[in-house]
Each structure stands twice: as structure tokens, then as C-alpha cells.
Amino acid sequence: MRVYLAPMEGVVDHLMRDMLTRVGGFDLCVTEFVRVVDQKLPHKTFFRLCPELHNGCKTPSGVPVKIQLLGQHPQWLAENALTAVELGSPGVDLNFGCPAKTVNKSKGGAVLLQYTQQLHDIVSAVRQAVPAHLPVTAKIRLGYEDKSLAIDNAIAIDEAGASELVVHARTKTEGYRPPAYWDWIKKIKAATRLPVIANGEIWNYEDALRCMADSGCDDLMIGRGALAMPNLAWHIRGEQAPMSWTDLSQLLIDYSGYEIFGDKGRYYPNRIKQWCGYLKRQYPQAETLFGAIRSLQKADDIVKVLRQSAHL
To answer: What are the strands, taking DSSP E only, across the chain?
Structure first.
């Protein structure tokens, strides 16, 4: 099986990709989306969101990173896709799944699932622009308000020449509320020729088994689950037990070093608290930790608490 790390806007940046791929078990990462409106973007935009371009578009531990684009105009997406691969991205991913209101209001992300022909036109234009040996992939949800176009959208993406399709098994309206409708992925898989990767509501080994059974997919993409259990990729492969709290505490300390001395150090207090919010799903100790750092604003004070947390 292949396990991909999902793109999560404002969460899975290059620092988190580095940290999670060092823990291991991932075959591919996808960047936060590069927003394309009505122009060809400067190279610095791609390097800002994907600094791995300086390293052969791989994380320091060697996991490939693919650039994701989000937008509505086929030709501008095509031109920026070509830039992405010329800079070194091993292909391009197209975001048709982002549920954020600000993105959807500007006709990007999941809102495009209402317009099957536009999906086709975007994928077709990007496929024509990107050299044939490099993949053009897409990520969709099952629909915007309902699932009525799920199959049509997948067929349109297939016929436009996509190489692979990731399906988040919920609509935009369903957001991130359980359950995920993995059985719909099986319907999409049956209706297209595309390799399909299942995504949504995979938190542990048992979820992964059910997802694969219900979706008919051998390959998975995980996002929030990997933040809640950093070695989830190994866990769902059946190769590791869930990471211990002691090991996780050390990981939090290591991550703190990345954040504090990285280019986003000023955001560190909020980022570590955000991560604790995900960890609370799998680790009751994270609730205690969050309570201890909730009001802290200085990085040194937070790291001091983290060092103590290994004994919780």
C-alpha cells in the first residue's frame, strides 16, 4: 500500500512535513495549496510554500513533495503548473476539495464540484501543459452540497487525462463531521480507470482496514489522523503500535526547535497549541498539557512545560 500525507492549509507546512516524514511511513507529501488567480506567479511563491524545491523537492528524510495548485482558470493553472514542474515538483496536484468559505467564495476548491465541465477543462489544460511523464493528479470531495455529481465529476477528471485521484469521502457541506462515506469511493473507482486514493476519517489501524474494505482502495491519504498520532502511517501499515506519550513528548520538543528557529518562529505558541488540539483525540495527556500551556506566550516557557510533560 501507499500512504500519502494530506495537504492541510495552515497546518502541514514544510516544518510539519519534515517532522512527520522523519517519523516515517509516508510515500508522498502534498503541499498546502498555491493560490492561482489571474497571473503567472513568481518563483518565490513556489519556494515559500515548498522550500523542499531546494532539495530536489524532497523532505530532508527523502520523501517526495508534490506542489498543489488551487484556482478556477484553466489557462492560468496550466501556466503555473508548468512553472511548478520546471522548478522541480514531481508532478502537480489540483485542489477541488478545500471547504474553506474564503476559498469557495472566490470560486476555488470544493465550490468547483458544482461545475463538472470546468473540472474537465482545468485538468485538461494542466495535463496538456505538464510534460507527459509527470503526473497530474486531483483531490476532490464527494460534492459541494450533495453527492449527485460525484461520479460525473470523477469521470470528467479521468477523461481529461488525470493520472490519479484522491477522494475525501465527504461533501463540502459535511465538512469533517463523521462518518466518511467510503462506499462512495468504491463507486467512483468502479466508474473510472483512475488509480484512486481514499481519504477521510482514518485515525487508526482499524479505521484503515474498514476504509480499504469499504472503498476498495489499497492506498490511503491521511491528514488530521497523522497529527493526532504522528506514527499513524506506520501504525496503519501494521508495523508499529501507536507512539508512546514519552516519545511524543520528545517529538514536540524537537518540533519546537524547528518552529522557534525557523522562519515562522513568531507563530510557535499558536502552532503548538493547535497541535495539542489534534493530539487530544488519541492522548489524554494532551488535555493536561494544553491546559498548562494555554495562557503561555513565550516559547521558552512552553518548552519548559513540554520537558515536564514526558512524565504525565
So the answer is: 3-5, 28-35, 65-70, 92-96, 136-141, 164-168, 196-199, 220-222
The band of 260, judged by pLDDT with boundaries at 50, 70 and 90, is confident
β-sheet bridge partners, residue 222? 5
Q: What letter would DSSP give residue 64?
A: B
- Taking only the tens place, the pLDDT of each residue in 184-197 is 999 999 999 999 99
Q: Return the CATH superfamily for domain 3-228.
A: Aldolase class I (3.20.20.70)
Catalytic residue ranges: 98
- The Cα–Cα gap between 166 and 96 comes to 10
Task: Name residue 254's amino acid.
Answer: D
Q: Domain boundaries in the chain?
A: 3-228, 245-309
> Which residues does residue 173 pair with via DSSP β-bridges, in sequence order?
none
Cβ neighbours of residue 125 under 8 Å, at least 6 residues apart? Answer: 74, 75, 77, 78
Domain 245-309 is found in CATH 1.20.225.30: yes
